[in-house]
Amino acid sequence: MEADEYNKSLIEVLVDEPCIYDPSDPAFQNINERHMAYVRLGQRLRDRGASEEQVHRINDRFQVLKRRYMTEYRKVQRGVQSHWAYYEDLTPILNSLAEKAVSNETTSVISDSNLIFSPYSPSPSSDERPAEAKRRHVEEKQRSDFQRSEFSGIFDYVSYRLDNMDEATRKATVEKILRLVHNPSLELVDERVNASTSTPKW
After folding, report:
1. pLDDT tens, 80-90?
2. DSSP letters for 66-78
3. Is residue 121 very low, low, confident or very high in pLDDT (cuts 50, 70, 90)?
4. Between 37 and which of 5, 17, 60, 170 could a Cys-Cys bridge form, CB atoms 3.0 to 4.6 Å apart?
5. Minimal CA–CA distance to 15: which of 73, 89, 88?
6. Pick from 149, 177, 152, 162: nearest CA to 57
7. pLDDT in tens, 100-114
8. 155 CA to centre of own chain
9. HSE of 8 in the Cβ direction (CA atoms, 13 Å)?
10. What SS3 class is residue 83?
11. Other C-beta atoms within 10 Å of 42: how many?
């Protein structure tokens, strides 16, 4: 099953299993119920032509879709239109969860009692006014959220591209990514020396 078809099929069958995605569902905290829900999801995806590998990656794929949806949801809240192919399909499933998450973040930022400064950022000076401290905290929070959303977008893109590769190409690409992560300077040297390599291009 192609990646796009797999994503669409997963979203369609998830609608019938709220214990997977809805914290207000009575069975959300029930391990046995959630396990049986995943079993049912797996069988329905098999019936649609999903491979065993895709069946075993249901939860991983759903988490990727959920993270991307949260990123797109925040963009929409800022007045930016989402062009992501699955945003509308996921809205019935994840909209309430996204609303709650954003509401909790807002409450955390504007509440004095919840104003917590990161140990890795400068502490407010003794003569800094509360309003100034709060404003600086909000700016740091927004910058952190932006960086997190950027990373999430990159992760989603990499996952999508890997899903569309054959096994040999995917393995070679993953090895290349790991080399780049562990030794980026060496990888850049290799790229210049082996300009004509057959390693998969992005």
Report:
1. 999 999 999 99
2. HHHHHHHHHHHHT
3. very low
4. 17
5. 89
6. 162
7. 776 665 444 434 333
8. 7
9. 9
10. coil
11. 17
Tokens linked to 179: 């080399």
CB 65 within 8 A of CB 90: yes
Residue 102 token pair: 């954003």
- Of residues 62, 103, 50, 52, the one with CA closest to residue 86: 62
Distances (CA, A) of 115 to 58, 106, 112, 122, 133: 37, 11, 5, 14, 9
Other beta carbons less than 10 A from residue 149's beta carbon = 17
Q: Are 61 and 13 in contact (CB under 8 A)?
A: no
Nearest to 11 by CA among 77, 99, 88: 88
Residues 145-158 have pLDDT tens digits of: 555 555 555 555 56
Which amino acid is it at 202?
A: W
pTM assigned to the model: 0.51
Summary mean pLDDT of the chain? 74
Instruction: Report the C-alpha gap between 89 and 76 in whole angstroms.
Output: 15
CB within 8 Å of 25: residues ≥ 6 apart: 18, 19
Residue labelled with tokens 């950022």: 121
Q: How far is CA 158 from the centre of its chain?
A: 11
Alpha-carbon dihedral angle through residues 131, 133, 134, 135, given to the nearest 10 degrees: 90
* Alpha helices per DSSP H over 164-183: 167-182
